[in-house]
Specification:
By secondary structure, the chain is of the alpha/beta class. The protein is globular and about 60 Å long. Helix 2 runs parallel beside helix 3 (about 65-75). A 9-stranded mixed β-sheet has the order 7-8-6-5-4-3-2-1-9, with helices on both faces. Strands 10-11-12 form a 3-stranded antiparallel β-sheet, with no helix packed on it. The chain is about 35% helix and about 20% strand.
């Protein structure tokens, strides 16, 4: 059963202008044509299931003007939402105007704000605008369920800068925080300027983990912390290896053992050539994904759920036995999960689950 949908709005208004979509957000024809094609793709592929989570991401959908947002949300009415569905909308802080918040207040129930950092010098490195904290405070008057994205591990970042960022979020009383170590994405200024990430220790992760847990945030996934009841249901769909639709330029989806990725070429997309790549997974590949995705969760993989899916217990897999003996994985009566001591070196564990037979042995 498919209960999750991801909608990709590729346009953004960051000042970097290193990719086409930074420039295209001002072109109303491109946006209208894109939304028209998005509607066609949804109608062509959506089978009418009741949807539990809808995530509108990007790019940054908040860069659309009110008229464009009206068109987008008219399209989204195609989906049949469950009564208590989670509807998330990504936004840049500068877009959180009263006009847009008034428009969104009855259409979504979760807001994800791409802050990255509050530090002016680090924002200049990213070629992003200064964060208007008053806009975030205004958003809190409209929405209780808010996430803030926080980026760290800049070479120029001291522990004091990181502490100031965390304290700002804590003072804002934001119930969900997503933390990401800096990654050099193609087409960004840092990537083009051959920026080298020098920080390879885990001091920042350890600080973030301690301060957030001390402030009653549940560390439920490697990069995510939430107050009780504010975990992201949509993202749990990915980590539980469940089916989901992906619509829009560059979106990916997973349906009936088929993983697919849409084209990133807007010309092809606007001509109706949506899919770039599809891959049919055999059962062993599905089990590999079960571990690679499931081990992102702090509590790992539920043994009973795994057995219901695949007909055997995780303890019957030889690589599991070995990693438990090495104390890298912990196996209790309910779950199997990464030992917290190895959490920030998890790639060294996950690599064991690639290109290997994971049936019981």
């Amino acid at each position: 059963m498919i209960k999750a949908v991801y909608i990709h709005i590729p346009f953004c208004q960051n000042i970097c202008s290193y990719c086409d979509f930074c420039k295209l957000h001002k072109n109303e024809k491109w946006i209208n044509d894109y939304l028209d094609e998005l509607k066609k793709e949804i109608k062509q592929n959506y089978k009418g299931e009741k949807i539990k989570t809808l995530y509108i991401g990007g790019g940054t959908p908040s860069c659309l003007n009110i008229k464009q947002l009206e068109k987008l949300f008219t399209i989204l009415k195609i989906f049949k939402l469950e009564k208590n569905s989670e509807v998330t909308f990504e936004a840049n802080p500068e877009d959180l105007t009263k006009e847009k918040l008034e428009f969104l207040k009855n259409k979504i129930n979760r807001l994800s704000i791409g802050v990255q950092t509050f530090n002016q010098n680090l924002l200049k490195l990213l070629e992003r605008k200064p964060v208007n904290i008053d806009n975030i405070k205004l958003a809190k008057k409209y929405f209780k369920n808010i996430n803030i994205d926080l980026m760290y591990n800049f070479n120029e970042e001291t522990i004091d800068i990181l502490k100031e960022d965390i304290n700002t979020i804590l003072n804002l009383e934001i119930p969900h925080i997503s933390t990401y170590s800096l990654i050099l994405e193609p087409h960004t200024k840092l990537y083009i300027n051959n920026y080298k990430i020098e920080n390879e220790d885990t001091k920042n992760e350890e600080y973030i983990n301690k301060i957030l847990q001390d402030n009653s945030y549940n560390h439920y996934e490697v990069s995510n912390y939430a107050k009780k009841g504010y975990e992201s249901n949509h993202n749990l769909t990915y980590w539980n290896n469940e089916n989901y639709y992906g619509f829009g330029l560059g979106a990916s989806g997973y349906i009936d053992n088929v993983r697919y990725e849409n084209t990133k070429n807007i010309t092809k997309y606007l001509k109706g050539n949506y899919k770039q790549e599809t891959h049919i997974l055999d059962e062993n590949e599905t089990i590999q994904n079960e571990f690679i995705l499931g081990f992102r969760k702090i509590n790992g993989i539920n043994r009973n759920n795994f057995k219901e899916k695949y007909g055997f217990d995780v303890s019957e897999i030889s690589i599991i036995k070995n990693l438990v003996k090495e104390n890298k994985l912990i196996l209790d009566k309910d779950n199997i999960f990464i030992n917290p001591k190895y959490l920030y070196f998890s790639n060294e564990i996950l690599i064991n689950f690639i290109d290997i037979n994971l049936h019981k042995q």
